Amino acid sequence: MLKYIIKRILLSLLIIFGVSVLIYTLLRCMPADYVETKFTLNPNTELTPERIAQMKELYGLNDSIIVGYWKWFVKAIRFDFGYSFKYNQPVTKVIKDNMWMSFTLTLLSLVIYYPLAIFLGIKAAVKQYGAFDYATTVFTMLGISLPSFFFSAILIKVFAYDFGWFDTSLGMKTPSLINPTPWEAFWDKAWHLVLPIMTIVILSLGGLMRRSRTNMLEVLNADYIRTARAKGLSENAVIYKHAFKNTMIPLVTMLAGLLPGLFGGSMIIEQVFGLEGIGQKAYAALNEGDIPFVMGYNMFLAILTVLGIFLADIMYMVVDPRVKITK
Amino acid sequence: MLFKKKENNLPAGEKKKNVHYLTGKETREIAKSNNRRIRELEKKKRMHVSEADYTTTMRDDNNIVEFDDLHTHFFTDAGVVKAVDGVSFDIPKGATVGVVGESGCGKSVTSLSLMRLVQGPMGQIVGGSIRFNFGDGKAYDIAKMPMSDMRKIRGEKIAMIFQEPMTSLNPVFKIGYQMDEMVLLHTPNCTKDQAKARSIEMLQLVGIAAPERVYGCYPHELSGGMRQRVMIAIALSCNPKLIVADEPTTALDVTIQAQILDLLREIKAKIDGSVMLITHDLGVIAEMADYVVVMYAGRVIECGTTEEIFDNPLHPYTIGLQHSKPVVNRKVDRLYNIPGQVPNPINMPDFCYFKDRCDRCVGKCSGEYPAFVQVSPTHKVACYLYEEKTNSEE
Fold first, then answer.
1. Which of A109, B39, B127, B221 is the most buried (most CB within 10 A)?
2. Which of B159, B172, B231 sits opposite A321 (nearest CB)?
3. Cβ atoms within 10 Å, residue B393
């Protein structure tokens, strides 16, 4: 077991290294760097070309990709991801400050859509080719096919503008709310999260529901389900005890793989709803070529992904008695 | 539209030649009629039927089960597969009835029909009855019972041992849990400790050396033979009246096979039940069964006592089966096999299904499907070869 973990960690480091090289190269290949977007392309700029060249030197944008990467790498292995160009703060601090907003948003939607999708999937599988099966299939395919920016725009139009149930300004606070009590402020915040959560839930439901349906169908055709029926168990016991535990194996392990998504935030949805999450920060940083922040953010995601995969393997061992990790 | 065009381009003759080719129209028609039938039958399964509606009387009170003209069909996209097409035979109390036949003859489907475990919605019992002797003068028609009432019979009265011990146990539950579950379900006022004691007792009975250890194991930690023993232990833990063993030894090697069969025989004597033994191994039948039913393409073609079938096989198919069994002390160059294979039971013509493979065909064989000829009080055969003989004797 120890050997396995050490092997996994070494492998993960290699993966993270590869990811960092790839992302750094891609970032440097972007058509306009930070200084150019900020000063050169800005018509109101008063800086002379000499000054701009000086700025570029200062930001380290004149180095070749290899030299630039080496400079970043030497610092990064000591967990120093540098200063964000755009936010003028250490990258780690920006991540830390904005992470929890995204975490809350994703966690809340996860708590809603995960059990719901599994439940719907099982129901659809049990009544395969029935009316319920077709209805959920159509509904979830709709959810899968809609782009998130478009769907959130529709939700905002319908529920915020037409019905007026939600605040139409960006952000987490209703502007008209002056001097709220802590309780009121909390409710106001929670109310602002409803539409983004709704968007995530409806868009994520489909894929997982299809997966749980397929799993369940496969399990229902297994020999041990026939055995359970032959024992005289009620249909509910067969489905929600014998089949359920087997269906859950791949679904539970998938849960561990969602770790990066949990902290990484959702760029587009946060952007559309104006939520101050890490996804929005990363989106803005990416647009302006803020190399240290984008690198730091992606390293953060890469580490979480690797950790998630590792956790998924551990989860397999927990839920499936047949899986034993030996090497 | 694209597909339609292709169809039209086909030469007229080719269409008729290729039996496996279904035109779009035919496919749609099949799907339509299948859907209609399935919906009808599924509705019937869920409907509440009062006990009086499925109570019947046994033809002979000494039988535990009577199959009477049972029809089980599968509604597939290629057409209706008549997997079991008018099967009738009896299982007497305390007897072992062996059902033999090639793969695809409907043996397993017959047994699954008895348990009402045919995989719906495709597979459905469409006609006939299966009378089950409940004891104390009551008899139920299993084919008419709603699914909710079937639970009274499954496991408690009729227990089933499946052919695949490797996959028939749930991989994520411990053996102990899967055994206790059965006991708890069918024993009123049973505590967990009592169930555990019973399970361990059963494990001992089926010859597992360390029952306590096996009780706490997961199925994947046991060998195939051990798992089949566990399956038998589960099946027998509630003292069923009838054990349906669907090829219980097919997946096991020969030494384990002999042990399992011995075990089955011993236990049958102990609980005084009947056994319906499905196999394609004639050696197993000869050793175990009192009565033999030979099935071919979804129909019973010959049945009788074991002596009759083995000493005096009549149907050419039964004779062929006997020939194709290896015999100790006889030297042959090649083991005999019946030419051809079991026909695909879709759209079967109305003549003896064995006709195309039979080496003793007579002119009458092209006529309608032969009726049963009673050769002796217990022995009957569905073949034209014997019709005249009995007629002339009378």
1. A109
2. B172
3. 6
Q: Which residues of A touch B153 (CB under 8 A)?
A: 232
pTM: 0.79
In a domain, A315, yes or no: no
In this complex, do B156 and A242 lie within 8 Å of one another by their Cβ atoms? no
What per-residue confidence (pLDDT) applies to A165?
Answer: 84
Q: How far apart are CA A223 and CA B164, in angstroms?
A: 8
ipTM (interface pTM): 0.83
Q: How confident is the model at residue A161, as a pLDDT?
A: 85
Q: Which residues of A touch B (CB under 8 A)?
A: 129, 221-224, 226-235, 242, 245-246, 249, 319-322
- Parallel, antiparallel, or unpaired for β B138-141 and B123-135? antiparallel
Tell me whether residue A262 is in a domain.
Answer: yes
CA distance B64 to B143: 15
Domain CATH number, residue A184: 1.10.3720.10
Average pLDDT on B346-374 reads: 81
Residue A325 has a pLDDT of 67
Q: What is the mean pLDDT of residues B83-92?
A: 90
Contact A215, A128 (CB under 8 A): no
**Given pLDDT bands bounded at 50, 70 and 90, which one contains residue B254?**
confident
CB-neighbour burial class of residue B182 (10 A; exposed 0-12, middle 13-18, buried 19+): buried
Print the domain residue range for A112: 99-286
Q: Is A202 within a domain? A: yes
* A86 inside domain: no
Closest CA to A198 of A262, A151, A146: A151
* Torsion, CA A93, CA A96, CA A101, CA A102, rounded to 10: 110
A149-168 core/surface letters (b: 16 or more CB in 10 A; e: else): eebbeebbeebbeeeeebbe
SS (HEC) of A34-101? HHHHHHHCCCCCCCCHHHHHHHHHHHCCCCCHHHHHHHHHHHHCCCCCCECCCCCCEHHHHHHHHHHH
Nearest residue to B211 via CA among B232, B197, B223: B197
**Higher pLDDT residue, B16 or B360?**
B360
Show the tokens assigned to A190: 């929670």
Sites in chain A below the pLDDT cut of 50: none
Indicate if the pLDDT at residue B43 is higher than 60: yes
